[in-house]
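A student in our group prepared the protein record below, which I am reviewing. This is what I was given:
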Amino acid sequence: MVFSSIIGVFLLPVIFFFHPYVFTVSPISAVLISINGMLYVLAVLPYFYALERDEASVVVPLFQMIPVLSYLLGIAILGETLTLNQIFASLLIIIGAIGISLDLTEKRKIKLKKDVLGLMFISSLLFALNFLFFKHFALRESFWVTAFWEYVGFGIFAIFLMLFVKPYRNQFIEVFRRNRVIVLSTNGINEIINIIAKISFNFASLLAPVTLIWVVNGLQPMFVFIYGVLFTLFWPKFSEENISKTNLAQKVISIAVITVGVYLLSSNSS
């Protein structure tokens, strides 16, 4: 959480160097955009807790709840309505999300992983709000102005964590003290990749409706699933997934249902 918050601070001077007009935005807009940045980092928290509880190939596909929640937010905030096709596509995503959240390890007994599903619902809802507000401000101000003040929000959130969340502060200092090189290199690479992905997604959302972008983003669970299987087979010390026949079939079917739902949802919004 601390690293995810700090990384945006290092981008501030870079953005300011190429776009010095970032301070021309009104104070109210700067504050609201910064709050939206905090919202993004906060959305990462339940995602991390979900990853502690289950495999990445189970957790990541649940992010496909975001387009459904985006539609629901559009209804609640913008007064939009859903067509029957959009409702059907949303139901497919929900069915796929529930399918991948089922625990089938015990024979003749099916359990729903309520904790993982609940955490990812909260994370998806916060991410949906962040994407919605980012596009709103980026269209009104500019992309880089919005990105700059969003990263200011990242930095403020990092300060809040270090000052007021003692366990996070102690863990951060301890792990940094013991494994400085590994922590800096591993987390640094991870956060750089994450920032590039976020900037790419945000910029793409300005070129087309956000729901259309989810056509491509719907491939994310497939990539995670493939990575998980490859790591389990060739690099199990790094990551190990359950690759039993039952588990593989469950993931493949659920991811396929989610992908079809995202595609239908996006194609109906074009």
About this structure: The CA atoms of residues 72 and 80 lie 9 Å apart. The mean pLDDT is 81. The beta strands are 102-103, 111-112. The chain has one domain: 2-14+24-267.
